[in-house]
Amino acid sequence: MLCITPSLYPTGPVKVFLTLATRLREKGQEVFFWYFDELENVNDERGEKIQFNKFKDASGFDIVQSVGLRPDLYVRRFHKKFKCPTVTTMENYVEEDLKFEYNTIISKFFSPVWKFGTKKHDGFVTLQNHMKDYYNRKWGVKSSDVIANCSEVKVEPAIKNIENRILEHKRTNILLGSIGYVTERKGLRQVVKLLNLREDFYWVHFGGGKSLESTKKMANDLGVEERVLFLGKVPNASSYLKLLDVFVMPSYSEGMPLSMLEAVMQKIPCVSTNIDLFKSIFSNEESGQFEPDNIEMFSEEIDRVLESKKSFIEKSFLKYNNEYSPDVVSNKYIELYKRLINEQK
C-alpha cells in the first residue's frame, strides 16, 4: 500500500495513518509513504519525498491512499497513470472547517477545488455516518465507506518541571485540560468563560495557534489568568493527560477528535460540545455534552461527569476498544483495500 501525505510530521490525519501503518505491517501488509514537505521532527518512516507537478511511477503498489488536499489533487491530476485503485479519506467537514480556520472566501474557493480532487478516486472514506451524509448532500458522493480515525498514545516520561507546574494547581482545583491548535473552530474561549463562572476550575492547554493571544487576552480581561496555564507546544503532550480530572473539547466543528480518544485511552472522562460529530462518537452516558456557548450547561456537564466518573470512564473505554482502537480500524481498512482490489480485477 502507498500512502500519500503532505508530510511525515505526526499531527492530525498524518498521525492517524502513521499509526495505521504500524498496525497494517503487523498484519502482514507492506506500507510506504510519499510526501511533499520535508519538515523537522518527523517520524522515522519508510517514505520518499515527491514533487507535486511530477508523476512518480507507482506500478509496484496495489492500492493508493491519499490524505489531504494536495495528495487528493495529486491523485486527481495523474489518475490515468495509476494502475491500481485509489482511496481518499476525508478527515473534516471541508466547507465549514475552512470557514472557521480562514474565512468565507477561502472556503468558497477551496471547497470545490477539494471536491474536484476526489472525483477520480475509487474509494471515498468518511469518519462517521453524519459525515457520510454531509458529503452525499454537499458533494453528491453516492457511495462511501465509514471508518473512524484511530490514535495510539505512547506515554513518554513527563518533563518534571512541566508536570510540577500542572500538579501545583490540581491540589486546590478541579483540573480541566485540552490539546490542540488554538483557532476559532476549537471554541476554547468557552473555557475562559467557564472559569469566570466557576472559581474551583483550573485549565491547562497544550498547543499554540493563531487565536492563542486573543484567548489569553480574554482571560486577562475577565480576571481569570491566574487559573489558566497555556503551555504551548509540548513534546508528547498526551503523556500529561493522566494528570487531568476532565478533558474538555468545546469545538464548534470537528473531524475526528484524536486528542479526545487519547484521553479516553488513558481513562480520563471527557466533556465536549453536543455537535453531531461528537454525538455520533460517544453517547451522553459515555461523555458529557453541552450546547455550544451554553456555559452554564458546560459547567453542569462537568459536574455530572465527575459525579459518575467511574461509569463514564468504563463506558467510553469500552466504546473505544470496540470501535476506535487501531486494531479495529486497521482491519476495516484491510477489508476496504481488498474489496477495491478485487473489484478492479
Describe the structure.
The chain has 345 residues and is an alpha/beta fold. The protein has 2 domains: 2-150 and 325-344, Glycogen Phosphorylase B (Rossmann fold, 3-Layer(aba) Sandwich), CATH 3.40.50.2000; 160-324, 3-Layer(aba) Sandwich (Rossmann fold), CATH 3.40.50.2000. The protein is built from 13 helices and 13 strands. It has helices at residues 12-26, 69-77, 94-101, 104-118, 129-139, 160-170, 189-197, 212-222, 258-265, 276-281, 295-307, 309-324, 326-344, and strands at residues 2-5, 32-35, 47-49, 64-66, 86-89, 123-126, 145-146, 174-179, 201-206, 228-232, 246-249, 270-273, 288-290. Strands 3-2-1-4-5-6-7 form a 7-stranded parallel β-sheet, with helices on both faces. Strands 10-9-8-11-12-13 form a 6-stranded parallel β-sheet, sandwiched between helices. Strand 4 (64-66), helix 2 (69-77) and strand 5 form a beta-alpha-beta unit. Helix 7 (189-197) runs parallel beside helix 8 (212-222). It is globular. The chain starts with a strand and ends with a helix.
